[in-house]
Design brief:
By secondary structure, the protein is mainly β. It has one domain: 3 Solenoid (UDP N-Acetylglucosamine Acyltransferase, domain 1), CATH 2.160.10.10. It contains 1 helix and 21 strands. The strands form 4 sheets. The protein has an 8-stranded mixed β-sheet, with no helix packed on it. A 6-stranded parallel β-sheet has the order 2-5-8-11-16-19. Strand 20 and strand 21 form a beta hairpin. The longest helix is centred in the first third of the chain and has 14 residues.
């Protein structure tokens, strides 16, 4: 989707009203109403970040995304926070390039139906490049997820996880 420079300028101004110190490198796409977005201070969006906040019929016009203070979203990050439960991200979040976070998915049994489940990511979490987070996952505080991992189950606090599907590699400490 190509957004005109004027629309980008308006979007950046609207985001700065939410947090004056927000940093936006270049081109960010937001689908849905900005009222569904809450951001803390010192947030940095790299280029080509895509945020889906719901607001469309397939999500029953619902969605919510909250991002705590001191978060970095790398380039080409996609967050689908559509649906009644949305995505909650804590403080000090470090998100590498190409990460995908989903609070919704198409039902396996009926392709016309969407399944929604809340995604919760704690404080001090690092997701390396190309991590995929599935709907319904809770990631505890101070967790590191290795590059190219697919997280389909909860990860407890103070853990290092990796793989596809992701599994706990080390508990009670970072790598």
């Amino acid at each position: 989707m190509i957004i005109s420079w004027w629309k980008q300028r308006q979007l950046k101004a609207a985001l700065r009203k939410k947090a004056a110190d927000v940093q936006i490198e270049k081109d960010i796409t937001v689908i849905g109403p900005l009222t569904h977005l809450t951001i803390g201070s010192n947030i940095r969006f790299a280029h080509n970040v895509y945020l889906h906040l719901g607001g469309l019929a397939w999500s029953d016009f619902k969605g919510s995304l909250s991002i705590g203070e001191k978060a970095v979203l790398g380039p080409h990050v996609v967050i689908y926070a559509a649906g009644p439960f949305g995505v909650h991200i804590g403080h000090n979040f470090d998100c590498g390039p190409g990460v995908k976070i989903f609070a919704s998915k198409t039902s396996v049994s009926n392709f016309d139906v969407r399944d929604f489940a809340k995604v919760t990511i704690g404080d001090g979490v690092t997701l390396f490049a190309n991590v995929v987070i599935s709907p319904g996952v809770t990631i505890g505080d101070h967790v590191v997820v290795a590059a190219n991992s697919v997280v389909t189950k909860d990860i407890p606090s103070n853990s290092f996880a990796g793989g596809s599907p992701a599994r706990i590699i080390k508990e009670n400490g970072r790598p």
